[in-house]
Amino acid sequence: MVEILTQKTESIISKNKKLPTTNKQKFWFVYLLECMDGSFYTGVTNDIDKRMKTHAEGKGSKYVRQKKFKCLLHSKECESRSDACKAECHIKTLQKYDKLDWFSSQSKVEKLTSRGT
Question: Which pTM does this prediction carry?
Answer without folding.
Answer: 0.70
